[in-house]
Write a structure and sequence with these properties.
Elements: H1 2-20, E1 27-33, H2 40-43, H3 47-54, E2 57-63, H4 70-79, H5 83-86, E3 93-95, E4 100-102, H6 119-125, E5 130-134, E6 150-151, H7 160-173, E7 178-185, H8 189-195, H9 200-223, E8 230-235, E9 241-242, E10 248-250, E11 260-264, E12 268-273, H10 277-285, E13 291-295, E14 314-318, E15 323-325, E16 334-335, E17 349-352, E18 360-366, H11 370-378, H12 404-432, H13 439-452
Parallel strand pairs: 1-7, 1-8, 2-18, 5-6, 5-7, 10-15
Antiparallel strand pairs: 2-17, 3-4, 8-17, 9-16, 11-12, 12-14, 13-14
The structure holds zinc ion.
Cofactor: Zn(2+)
Pfam families: Phosphodiest
Membrane topology: Single-pass type I membrane protein
């Protein structure tokens, strides 16, 4: 019965959405608060965000991609690809063939981005649609010769209010209409690095500010009449963990730094040997019990971090909370970039709008699953990707989904009904076959017939 109701409803909703889609193309705003660790939601108060979730959905943990850094993870969200496939494999990169360098301050060369096609480009290839970006890594770069129709050059000094004003103006006034938009904010990442996530007092203050910004966002969307028809996803790229001056791995104690070039430092160091690779590897391998040292060909498959020229011949992965340094003191009290199986590295995802259920909580999805879900909402054909649309079906009103406890309940329920029915049939049959008076006598008469003949 429950199954029937769900099927009927999902059919009705699909029908309704199908009819209305001619007049109103679906719109989606993707928001990232950088470095918003998933369990901040349990450990701090977020009245505005909790209201948003109450009327929408929450995914408590998003398993992001390795390495858990900002540029790579933001690009995975908008492409559905692991880092080895989209090519943004770190915030600092070096390409041995072209000898080009990439850093978060020098990221405008499309060469680095062109190994993938982000959703804002695909969206604009559709007739009568445009994209807009109030910042998001890559949105101010002409990827495949295309920027969003409306975008801002990255600058951390632009206020949230200005970014929000721009994005709402573009969502309302543009022609062709903006159907996909991004909004990016640097906090709580910046404060997480500065104070460390265990600094409750400072993090309380910063996270309260973030919640107020979410309140502003929702208020503005309501005032402008965008709230009911706009799908809004609020998520992040990674979490944050506490570092300490007592947890340093000093490479200079193990190896002469003239024997290699360091492309990226911590917590995942990318090492390009200048001498024999095995020699460098052997020295680094025994450097610290608190980091794993991998030759590129031995990087564990679960990281999906191997098949790209920009991944260096040796990588060092520090244990959670450990910092790789070159004869220096601790650079920051909080960091990310570590193993993506650590829950401290995971962000969350919340969403609200006509595409999403209301008041639904879900345990986990992968960050690469967000891309096929966004394509579905916008009616775009997704490009080949590493995500699974099925993982996000339970979040969407036009999809039928069933989770494991429900499935087990339905199977047990069906078995109980079948067993009861079978039992009833057997009892009825037994009652019908109870011998009636004289029936045996009649049978005997029949039996006698052939003998008489
Ligand atoms: Zn980040």
């Amino acid at each position: 019965m429950k199954l029937l109701v769900i099927l009927l409803f999902s059919g009705l909703i699909t029908g309704c959405r199908g009819n209305s889609s001619h007049s109103l193309p679906p719109k989606l705003l993707l928001v990232s608060f950088d470095g918003f660790r998933a369990d901040y939601l349990q450990n701090y108060e977020f009245p505005h965000l909790q209201n948003f979730i109450k009327e929408g959905i929450l995914v408590e943990h998003v398993k992001n991609v390795f390495i858990t850094k900002t540029f790579p993870n933001h690009y995975s969200i908008v492409t559905g690809l692991y880092e080895e496939s989209h090519g943004i494999v770190a915030n600092s990169m070096y390409d041995v063939i072209t000898k080009k360098h990439f850093s978060d301050l020098d990221d405008k060369d499309p060469f680095w981005w062109n190994e993938a096609v982000p959703i804002w480009v695909t969206n604009q290839l559709q007739e009568n649609r445009s994209s807009a970006a109030a910042m998001w890594p890559g949105t101010d770069v002409p990827i495949h010769n295309t920027t969003p129709s409306y975008f801002m050059n990255y600058s951390s000094s632009v206020s949230f209010e200005e970014r929000l004003n721009n994005i709402t103006t573009w969502l309302i006034n543009s022609n062709p209409p903006v159907t996909f938009a991004t909004l990016y904010w640097e906090e709580p990442d910046a404060s997480g690095h500065k104070y460390g996530p265990e600094d409750k007092e400072n993090m309380y203050r910063v996270l309260k500010e973030i919640d107020d910004l979410i309140g502003e966002l929702v208020h503005k969307l309501k005032v402008l009449g965008l709230w009911e028809n706009l799908n809004v996803i609020i998520t992040s790229d990674h979490g944050m963990t506490q570092c300490s001056k007592d947890r340093l791995i000093n490479l200079d104690r193990c190896i002469d730094n003239s024997s290699y070039a360091l492309i990226d430092l911590t917590p995942v160091a990318a090492v390009l040997p200048k001498i024999n690779t095995t020699e460098v590897y052997n020295k680094l391998k025994v450097c610290s019990p608190h980091m794993n040292v991998y030759l590129k060909e031995d990087i564990p498959a679960r990281f999906h971090y191997q098949h790209n020229n920009r991944i260096q011949p040796i990588i060092l992965v520090a244990d959670e909370g450990w910092t790789i340094v070159l004869n220096k003191s601790l650079p920051k009290l909080g960091d990310h970039g570590y193993d993506n199986s650590l829950s401290s590295m995971h962000p969350f995802l919340a969403a609200h709008g006509p595409a999403f259920h209301k008041g639904y909580k879900h345990n986990t999805i992968n960050s690469v699953d967000i891309y096929p879900m966004m394509c579905h909402i916008l009616g775009l054909k997704p490009r080949p990707n590493n995500g699974t649309f099925g993982h996000t079906k339970c979040l969407l009103v036009d999809q039928w989904c069933i989770n494991l406890p429900e499935a087990v309940g339905i199977v047990i329920g069906a078995l109980l009904v079948l067993t009861t029915l079978t039992g009833l049939i057997i009892i009825m049959q037994n009652r019908l076959s109870v011998p009636r008076p004289f029936s045996r006598l009649q049978l005997q008469e029949d039996d006698d017939d052939p003998l008489i003949e």
